[in-house]
Every structure is written in C-alpha cells, then in structure tokens.
C-alpha cells in the first residue's frame, strides 16, 4: 500500500512515503507536530500534538489504516436550499473535514479535498468519531467555511457506515469583476479619507 505520511505544523508541512516495510523517517526541527497518514481507500487517525525535541530520536506509535466510514451530503445556499457548486469568485467548490484523521493544523495546507458533482453533492471518507466537514473555498462568514465549521454540529461517523449532512453557504451575487473592483476602489478611497492630517500620524497609519 502506498502510504504518504505528513508532519505538520500550522505554517509548514513535510511529507514522506513509507518503504516496502511500512517504515518512514523524518528529519525535523525542534517543535510540536501533527502526523497524518494517507493511503488509497483507507483512513487513519492522526497523531496530534507530538513533541519532537532537537537531537533526539522519536518513535511514533503505529498508524492503523482502516476503511473508516463516509460522509455524504450536499452544499446548498442557506437561505434558499438551492444547490451550489461554484464560489462567488467563480471557482469550483471543494469539501474537506476536520476530525480524527485531519487536524486543525491543515488550515494553510488542506488535504483530502473532494469536488462536488453537478448537483453540489459530495462523498468524504472519514475516521470514526466526530467530524466537521467544511467548504474549502467558501467565504469566511459562511456557516460551513473553514473558520466556522468546528462551531457547527459534529457529524458522527461509525466504521463501515455512512453519515449524511448538508453544508451551508450564504446567498451571494454572482462574481462580477467590475463590481468587485468598484468595491475595492471605494475601500481605498475611504481609507485615504480617514487618514489623519498630521503627517507623522498619517505615516504611522499607513505603515
């Protein structure tokens, strides 16, 4: 089985593949890491918050690859229930999750994202336990954005079973480059208008 193991901190990540015996080795800087394992058609509970002191060899507990369960559902507009597949910026929406197999340190390096079908439906493999699906490229104030997903009700997954859920986005106007450019210009003009008149204070506000 081809297994990719990831050592992850909030702002950096490193990956290695296992050898034929299922072994792997990292050379890491001193710090605390989450370790995740990914393999085709399998899922694995992550080893979270593991200290790796400098100049010391650390032996991690074995990673147990299992079939896990699934989360299926649909992305819809919260106000109308209408399925949605494209972000307001015109990008295809992708779905990921936080949970036993995917820790919150993936904020800057999301993995295991899945696309939506034409009706906004998705299917995620997940480890048993409480999982929090999110819409990867949703606006941050959407209920199931990366920022807000963990404040929503958890989706409980059991081994060999499928759980269902609905992910919500807020109603948006279709992305319009001209409208967005005008909004950006208005923000800049307001910023300039609000700057203090004193030159020193003005410089500090800009910096």
Structure notes:
The chain has 207 residues and is mainly β. 12% of the residues lie in helices and 32% in strands. It is built from two helices and eleven strands. It has helices at residues 177-193, 199-206; strands spanning 4-9, 12-17, 31-38, 47-52, 69-77, 94-98, 114-115, 121-126, 129-135, 155-157, 162-169. The strands form three sheets. It has a four-stranded antiparallel β-sheet with strand order 2-1-3-4, with no helix packed on it. A hairpin with an 8-residue loop joins strand 3 and strand 4. The longest helix has 17 residues, at 177-193. The chain is flat and about 65 Å long. The termini are far apart. The model has no long low-confidence stretch (mean pLDDT 87).
Strand order, main sheet: write it out: 2-1-3-4
Distance between the termini: 52 Å
Q: What is the percent of helical residues?
A: 10-25%
Figure out the total of helices.
2
Bin the strand percentage: 25-35%
Mean pLDDT: 87
Order of helices and strands: EEEEEEEEEEEHH
Radius of gyration: 21 Å
> How would you sum up the major sheet?
4 strands, antiparallel
Shape: flat
Low-confidence stretches: none
């Amino acid at each position: 089985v081809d297994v990719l193991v990831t050592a992850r901190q909030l702002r950096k990540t490193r990956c290695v593949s296992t050898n034929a015996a299922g072994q792997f080795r990292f050379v890491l800087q001193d710090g605390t890491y989450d370790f995740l394992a990914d393999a085709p058609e399998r899922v694995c509970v992550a080893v979270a918050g593991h200290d790796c002191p400098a100049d010391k060899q650390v032996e991690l507990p074995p990673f147990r690859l299992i079939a896990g369960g699934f989360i299926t559902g649909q992305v819809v507009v919260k106000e109308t229930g209408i399925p949605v597949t494209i972000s307001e910026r015109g990008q295809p929406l992708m779905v990921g999750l936080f949970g036993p197999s995917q820790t919150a340190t993936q904020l800057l390096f999301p993995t295991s994202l899945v696309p939506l079908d034409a009706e906004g439906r998705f299917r995620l493999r997940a480890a048993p336990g409480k999982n929090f699906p999110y819409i990867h490229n949703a606006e941050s104030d959407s209920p199931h954005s990366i920022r807000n997903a963990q404040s929503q009700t958890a989706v409980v997954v059991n081994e060999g079973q499928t759980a269902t859920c609905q992910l919500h986005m807020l109603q948006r106007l279709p992305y319009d480059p001209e409208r967005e450019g005008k909004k950006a210009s208005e923000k800049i003009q307001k910023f300039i208008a609000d700057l203090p008149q004193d030159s020193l204070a003005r410089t500090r506000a800009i910096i």
